Amino acid sequence: MAKKDGPWPSYLGQHLRAERLRTFAGRTAELDAFRSALQAADSFTVFFLTGPGGVGKSTLLRRFADEAAAAGRVVVEVDGHGGEAVPAVFEADAAEALTGDRVVLLVDTFEAYQPIEDWLRDRFLPRLPTGSVVVLAGRQPPGVGWVDPGWDEVLRTVVLADLSPEDAVAMLTARGVPAALHGAVVAFAKGHPLALSLAAEMVRREGGRNTGWRPSHEVIGTLVHQLVGEVPSPEHRQALEVCAHVDSTTEGLLRAALPGADTGALFAWLRRLPFIKVGPSGVRPHDLVRELLDADLRWRDPQRYATMHRRLFRQLIEQARTASGSTVLASSAALLHLQRHAGLAPHWFSGKFDGEVFEDVLRPEDRQEVLALAAEHANEESVALADYWLDRQPGAFTVYRCTESGELAGFLAWLRFTVPQEEELTADPVVAAAWAHVRATNPLRGKEHLGIARFMVSRRPNPSPTGDLISARILAHLIHADLLAWSCLVLPNPDEWRLSLFTHMDPPPVAQVGAQTYGLFGRDWRAEPVEAWLDRMDLLGSRQDGPSRAVPAHDARTRKLEVLSRPEFDTAVRNALRSWHRPDALAANPLIRTRLVGEITADDPVEALRTALSEAIERLGGDRGGEKPQRAVTVTFLHGTATQEAAAERLNLPFSTYRRHLTRGLERVCDLLWYSELHGPLHTPD
Question: Are 412 and 453 a contacting pair, CB within 8 Å?
């Protein structure tokens, strides 16, 4: 607490009021509206003050009481906490409001009076004399009964928001918190008055010595209790924890996370909570409530936290893979938000997608603004290259605009190359270095392509809303781009990035553009699909700063896949068919380590390989004229015929005819499996 200047008041109550006034911050608009109501002698005003627990409703009511008393008003205070919600008791507590002149009636914890809200609105308040001012403060907004023409000019609903960063700092300064700790405390409390007060008290007890300040579990537990209160059942608590862990919650996501629960009732309960916001993508909690609930469960029950996280991770991965159209970006954003504590480094993105910025297509009139924005973040040579690629691949550019102003907030250029032209390699040393690395490490096959995040520009430094959307769009490219073999993120100062976002990536090649050095953080997604990489990053990140979850050495999510050329792949398919009845030989076959088998969920890789082979043979029978080649392959390999002559005899075919069918069948099986290797096991050729 700050040192007291001047003489102390004569009474403790005077001292308390003085300290509350000294540490009071913000609420200028609310105070101005209340003072105007006090000055209006011939009107009747009801303020309905609503907001979640701890947002400062009671503090503001005390300030209203002081303001009203200073204006010469009679103040009647009623508190629903611990009171009886019956008309007779309320009327007895507030009797003076009915008989006094220009009385101010302040009702705190109004949610306790919800059983008699209709009586208060229809029977009690209309009996107050003209000139009265009423403030009803509670967690729940006014009921539907207030939607009435008679109340339109009388009722003013005030949703009490968090304090602005400036008001939060003013409050901390008044409470004696050292300036060096303001940033950490404000980042934690997010403008929530109760959180700011508890943090200030914690700093006071520590004497301000903890320069690396973090909230204690005591503070977190107190805030969880104050903000959330009692919940009806363990399932309701779990629904809250799911809601806190993901960006937005839908009934479907609850159903996946809580199998067997009445998710319809749970979702309806969630959307009624005062700290829950309802948006187009579902319901989401207040930022502070989100972080408190998540941190509390992470500390209190690490095993349950990990189980919940894994279940949600699998569900959101599946949603991201199957998304289409306008849901692609949203599903990628939801997946990124889930991993905000994992190895993707919190300082790179905030994990919040609140609509401040939106993604848009590049328009011709955007060109100069894109180049001007590039010039703010890069040298002349890089700006010239942005100009070059705007001509060569204009469709590669995506822009991000501020929702309110429409101003350009950033842009992304995602270049695609199957085979770059020589002119392009000569023009851009970054593209040339990336292409050289791909060719030297693991070349593209067939129509596979390389995607390069060549420019990722945000007007504001990361983490920022623009950076969040750029990250989500890149993830969407990685998940959905057909035949994407390699990707490359181009970032300045590569040593800094290696220590943060890309700790788990290989050392990058570099390229020089003018005086600026860029790191090319490339990845071969054929060797490790993006889902497996995200999963591995998630596991490693969680081991670093969360519940310990050992990663088994044999876990498929941690295995690198092998990338075979087409001739190597065909040889491996033929060898696998020859080894159909020899599990040891199948286990050593290179196909076991390819995408074809590595992306199939199975405890037994040998059985997964057999499944892939047998499905290809089955599809072969669906081709026109494919029945005979299918029978030739099946009898020769799957039935274990000793020799090809015996297989021809068993099929009752001349040996030359049998060989023709077998050759055609093998070629077609290789084609089918190669297509699945390139496109993924869920895809089949037309």
Answer: yes
Can you give the pLDDT at residue 437?
Answer: 94
Q: What CATH number does domain 225-338 carry, 1.20.58, 1.25.40, 3.30.1340, 1.10.10? A: 1.10.10
Tell me the DSSP string of 97-152.
HHHSSS-EEEEESGGGGGGGHHHIIIIIGGGSPTT-EEEEEESSPPPGGG-SGGGT
Query: Are the C-beta atoms of residues 458 and 356 closer than 8 Å to each other?
Result: no
Beta strand pairing status for 45-50 and 155-159?
parallel
Count helices and strands in the chain by DSSP H and E runs: 30, 14
pLDDT tens per residue across span 203-236: 877 765 666 678 888 888 888 887 888 899 999 9
Q: Where are the beta strands (DSSP E) in 459-614?
A: 484-492, 510-513, 516-524
Alpha-carbon span 668 to 631, nearest angstrom: 13
Each residue of 543-555: b (16+ CB within 10 Å) or e?
A: eeebbeeeeeeee
Q: pTM to 2 decimals?
A: 0.74
DSSP 248: S
Given the structure tokens 């996370």, which residue do they identify?
Answer: 257
Q: What is the architecture of the domain spanning 357-526? A: 3-Layer(aba) Sandwich (3.40)
CA–CA separation, 42 vs 44, rounded Å? Answer: 7
Relative orientation angle of helices 57-70 and 28-39, to the nearest 10 degrees:
40
As a whole number of Å, the CA-based R_g of the chain is 33
What pLDDT digit, counting tens, does each position of 585-604 carry? 999 999 988 888 865 545 68
Domain with CATH 3.40.50.300 in the chain: 27-159
CB contact set of 121 (below 8 Å; sequence gap of 6+): 145, 146, 151
The tens digit of pLDDT for each residue in 114-123 reads 899 999 999 9
Q: Domain 27-159 sits in which CATH superfamily?
A: P-loop containing nucleotide triphosphate hydrolases (3.40.50.300)
Residue 546's pLDDT is 43
Q: Which of 219, 214, 160, 162 is nearest to 188 (CA)?
A: 214
Farthest-apart Cα atoms in the chain, separation? 117
The token duo for 200 is: 């200030």
